[in-house]
Prior knowledge:
The complex is a heterodimer of chains A (about 325) and B (about 725).
Chain A: H1 2-30, H2 33-41, H3 48-58, H4 74-77, H5 80-85, H6 102-137, H7 142-156, H8 159-173, H9 188-219, H10 222-229, H11 234-254, H12 266-272, H13 278-286, H14 290-318
Helix pairs in contact in A: 1-14, 2-3, 6-9, 7-9, 8-9, 9-11, 10-11, 11-14, 13-14
Chain B: H1 4-19, E1 39-44, H2 59-68, E2 73-75, E3 84-86, E4 96-98, E5 104-105, E6 116-122, H3 150-153, H4 172-181, H5 192-196, H6 202-217, E7 236-240, E8 243-249, H7 255-258, H8 269-275, E9 297-303, E10 307-312, E11 347-352, H9 356-364, E12 370-372, H10 378-381, E13 382-384, E14 390-392, H11 394-398, E15 402-407, E16 410-416, H12 428-440, H13 443-450, E17 455-457, E18 481-484, E19 487-490, H14 493-502, E20 509-510, E21 515-516, E22 518-523, H15 531-542, E23 547-552, H16 555-564, E24 569-575, H17 582-585, H18 608-617, H19 624-640, E25 643-655, E26 659-660, E27 676-677, H20 679-689, H21 695-723
Parallel strand pairs in B: 1-11, 22-23, 22-24
Antiparallel strand pairs in B: 2-3, 4-5, 4-6, 6-8, 7-8, 9-10, 10-11, 12-25, 13-14, 15-25, 16-24, 16-25, 17-25, 18-19, 20-21, 26-27
Helix pairs in contact in B: 12-14, 18-19
Amino acid sequence: MIGYIIRRLLYAIPILIGVNLLTFALFFFVNSPDDMARVHLGGKRVTPEAIVKWKEDHGYNIPKFYNDARQGTGKFTDTIFYKHSVKLFMFDFGRSDQGRDIAYDISQRMWPSLAIALPTFLTGLLVYITFAMLIAFFRGTYLDYWGVVVCVVLMSVSTLFYVIGGQFLVSKLWHLVPISGYDIGMESFKFLILPVIVGVVSGIGASTRLYRTFFLEEINKDYVRTARAKGLSELRVLFRHVLKNAMIPILTGVVVVIPLLFTGSLILESFFGIPGLGSYTIDAISSQDFAIVRAMVFLGSVLYIVGLMLTDLSYTLVDPRVRLE
Amino acid sequence: MIRPGATRSTLLAISLVFSAGATASWNNPYPASEAKANILYSAFRERPKTFDPARAYSSNEYLFIAQIYEPPFQYHYLKRPYTLVPLTAVSVPTPGYLDRQGRRLPPNAPAGSIAYSVYEIRIRPGIYYQPHPAFARDAGGRYLYQTLSPQDLAKIYTIGDFPQTGTRELVAADYVYQIKRLAHPKVHSPILSVMNDYIVGIREYADTLKKEYEKIAGGRDTGVYLDLTQFPFAGAEEVDRYTYRVKIRGKYPQLLYWMAMPFFAPMPPEVDRFFSQPGMAEKNLTLDWYPVGSGAYMLTVNNPNRQMVLERNPHYHEELYPAEGEPEDGPAGLLADAGKPMPFIDKVVFSLDKESIPRWNKFLQGYYDRSAVLPEGFDQAIRFTGEGDTEVSDTMKQKGIRLLTSVAASTYYLGFNMLDPVVGGYTERARKLRQAISIAVDFEEQISIFENGRGIAAQGPLAPGIFGYREGQAGINPYVYDWADGKPRRKPIEYARQLLAQAGYPNGVDPASGKPLSINYETPAIGPERKAQLDWMLKQFSKLGIQLVVRATDYNRFQEKMRKGDAQIYDWGWNADYPDPENFLFLLYGPNKKVGHDGENASNYDNPEFNRLFERMKNMENTPERARIIDQMLDIVRRDSPWIWGMHPKNFLLEHAWMSNTKLHNMANNTLKYSRLDPEKRAELRLAWNRPVVWPVVAVLGVLAASAVPAVLAYRRREREKRR
């Protein structure tokens, strides 16, 4: 297994270089360093000299990929791409174009993101599996039929609707929790309860329907029939046998997102005023802060690769037949 | 069977849940301990870029730093027109004038003979800075935190982590130091380009500092301190402990307005040195994030991701609430606190709230004390009276919410590129084409439909309240409006069509092609929410038979097109820096053209007569002679019509009944110190407005429980059947 992990980590290096290259090319295809300077220097009284100075200070006054004016390796190393990207592989995110330490900002913002994402993820998993099991149990009945209809309706509604509807009902009409905001410690509970509920409810339709399919696929297999023939109760059959065997497809979708919980949710964080990482990247794109965009895309890629590795590893836990070599 | 004890417990629990809201609001986003505290609650939408007074230039930055930094002058809070008064200065100085040989000239010397103006500013003794570690000293008088090692900084993450703080008296040298900082190579002050034209020697000083900085830095990005006190500067000098002198080229009365902005606030050299130490920038400990001033408030919580908190500066000098204002200020209660020491509010909490709907709802619940009128809540908040005025709706009135309005010192306009062969130029044909389009684009309708009446149609570049702006018939643009029934009335579209025909485009048809005249419209208005406005604009041009081609791009592309002069018609706006006509009319001054000069004159308008008058007018005091010249200038630009004059937006502010002393000010940003609130009244109303309604939760839980019953029964039945 260790060999497998090392091999996967080595595979990750060219992927991350590719992601960096692509991010860089896409960003600078849309924005020139002059555009970035103008956005950072503000809309009024920006002179060409100020733009030149800003680019010099932020290292955007050299060629992007290839520096013809240099000799030897300098042709590649004295470029924006090299100078701004290589340090990422040491997890040195550097400073944003506004001058803030990116690693510090990420460390500050990931906890609020986790504070919403983790309970939403765990509660959601519990609720979705329970509902899917329930519907699967009543398969072929009106409950199954209407359950699927409700799921389709729920998954057709935009998350924004749940957010605004939740805020309107729970906070504005019933005055039960604050509309938005955030605090630390126990005080955070009152701010998190509504976004977590909204997060869970908005995912019920799609996830329940998906998990129902997994359960139905298992429920007609021979080992389930054998378990029933032994006289086991349906609950035992479902939770002891069906759930365990349906875990592989569930894990495929679930474990991969665990590391990405750090990166937060844009809509929930924006509407509920949660100072997480969800809006960090979007804010950086709108303010043309390439340093943050680059760091967040790199971090997202690393976390995604870690998620995929964790998924592979988790297979060995739920299915003894799987061996990683 | 249910036990009687269990029933009693359940009922008790339910009654507790239902009565809990009687004494507390569950949806209060603030700690319960702050319920009756003298704290103002507000919101901010995006993190400010910088708090460095030499760099900050945006309203969302001034919202904070204007309360912290104290330039020598400020605007009188109540008087209109806007008047400068001393803040830390003893008085607003009258400049001394010198000729080229350095001889004194009389105050009424002609502007052409004045080679230099000298402002000598005396500040009040006894003003102290807020507590800050940069000032902290040990018993021997040595600074505690000016030579920090990496070990010293190991456990420091915010300014609050330094255990000791100190203060010191504000001196004239601090103002001189800040003026020098405008030329610092790493500060990138946005006004350096303006000051290059005025402050004596600042361009050369910037070159010197750049060379010296490169010498010291040796390639380092951070942790470099350039001690500006070591580099004398002829443009700003310390005269004595409390007096400094600023020397500028020629006559430029507007300098005093600049000196009322944070760009000219004092900066203690030890604070700059403190933040320039190695390792500080790596921890985000910079002047960009930690302002240090002598103002009414100091920033005590700086978390731009969540919350910013201003607290009363314990060392704030005595400043009394103004005792005079406009005649209506007394009856409006704005003089009730006359002569009382400010500030009145202990703490101001700004929470990050990006989305408008939560912000609006929190205002309605009493959790924000003031709010702008948002498009989402306009109909709910505002109604129009029979006379066309605006007032708060009945719902708002019942809550005691008040509406305050003022016309902003801003202008939004549609500009013609005067370099364009079709719409530009100074021929009669081109003028008539532009005048015809100016009549056709009905800005009254635009204000009514898209701005909910929040604005007034512009008659020229000057905004109301600016010297030279005229009310009534004398102030209308006679090329677009007639004066009828005591108000301006847009000329009929038929007249515009006649002008268009005289311009060579009968019915909007271009004789060269035989097709409708096609004009490109550059706009940074992108996104679905702006589509209706762009459709409306197409309709305005179609009234003349002209085909408008909308070329919407992002703001960067838009700016690039403007710099290259690659536009025919475009839309843009201007917020005044200071209340002087020069700050609007320079937008049409020829040498300030965008193309070739990178100035702010985006229309590239260049009329020699206008330029000549501008050069005379810009250095004058506000005299009848200046007003006469401005009239001439306005007549020239109205005739040439390089802009469709567009609109001046109206600011709408809603505030709760517990707020007082609020008067909208379009120039001053340091207005928090004047505000007052009644925390007892707020606590009482918040409680009344936010009683928790628990029954829906109980009902939802009940429904869920009830719906589980058939499932449980069905499960049991199945299990029974299976056993059989």
